[in-house]
Amino acid sequence: MADPGMKVTIAGVTLKNPVMSASGTFGNGQEYAGFFDLSGLGAVVTKGVSSVPWEGNPTPRIAETPSGMLNAIGLQNPGIDVFIERELPFLAELRKKGTRVIVNVCGHSVEEYLSVIEKLRDQPVDLLEINVSCPNVKEGAIAFGQDPKMLESVTRACKEKAAQPVVMKLTPNVTDIRTLAQAAEAGGADAISLINTLTGMKIDVERRRFLLANRTGGLSGPAIHPVAVRMVYEAAHTVRIPVIGMGGVASGTDALEMMLAGASAVAVGTATFHEPCAMIRIRDEIRDYLVRHGIADITELIGAVA
Q1: C-alpha to C-alpha distance for 22 and 104, rounded to whole angstroms
Q2: What is the DSSP string of 260-294?
Q3: Predicted TM-score of the model (pTM)
């Protein structure tokens, strides 16, 4: 058969294939450019960008776990002004080759989110991914994404300010992901992405101390994949907007599982730490699956398991 169609569309933005980087695991792409041609990806998702520089958490900030890892980086980044001047030109060149650019936006208040969004209005950016796992300093440090009313409110504010389509990145650290998906949709989100990391902890029993200076960190990797697939399924069957699935995707099979559950695209994160070219391998494994099963277009698989 002819090469199968690999294009997918998220909020009116067409990606050449459904594979993208997960925010916080790929920097802004430059350090991986020596390993493979980044134009082979559907999109590059940047590290979180804030209105002012964030130093992040104290070290140690990384700990290995069975089938995964804990991180407590704390969204360290140089701020939006440095990002636009130093990082965005590289991404703009990549965008000219057809790879979409998605900027992850973080903040401790609605005003901080909006400041970043405002500065990105006229920049070469295709989508905005809003990290609502950030603590709201004005509301007792509860994460924006853990309260449905707060999530709907911040989504609406971001949509009113943004020139690009808005993707709300949902936290899995809640009782019912469907309620949050509905809140994001009600606030006007163009798409949602999930899952962010699960909160975890690791203790060194010999030294009787926490392995992370922050005590807790975000668990990622294959260990969380079944949880992620379940949440993607629940969210995709609750809202009408597109879903980007992530969480422990390390193979084409993992990615296809996400898409069959309802995701329109998938993001790869932890796998790239030990295999820099993992996303390209996953893309090729998806294409091989389509050929092997005689599937002409990948969109036939989205939500095919009901």
Answers
A1: 10
A2: HHT-SEEEE-THHHH-TTHHHHHHHHHHHHHHHTT
A3: 0.96
**What phi and psi values does residue 69 have, to the nearest 5 degrees?**
-155, 155
Bridging pattern class, strands 191-194 and 198-201 = unpaired
User: Smallest Cα–Cα separation from 186: which of 151, 219, 215?
Assistant: 151
- Whether the per-residue pLDDT at 141 is higher than 80: the answer is no
Residue 206 lies in a domain: no
Identify whether 106 is a catalytic site residue: no
Examine the pLDDT at 1 and tell me if it is beyond 80.
no
Inside any domain, residue 150:
yes
Maximum Cα–Cα distance for the chain, whole Å? 60
Instruction: Say how many domains are in the chain.
Output: 1
CB 169 within 8 A of CB 130: yes
* Mean pLDDT along residues 194-223: 95
| Helix-then-strand count for the chain, H and E | 9, 16
Using CB atoms within 10 A of its CB, is residue 250 exposed (0-12), middle (13-18) or buried (19+)? buried
Q: Is residue 69 part of a domain?
A: no
CATH number reported for the structural domain that contains residue 176 in this entry: 3.20.20.70
Catalytic residue, from 106, 134, 158, 277: name it.
Answer: 134
CA distance 290 to 118: 41
User: At residue 140, does pLDDT exceed 90?
Assistant: no
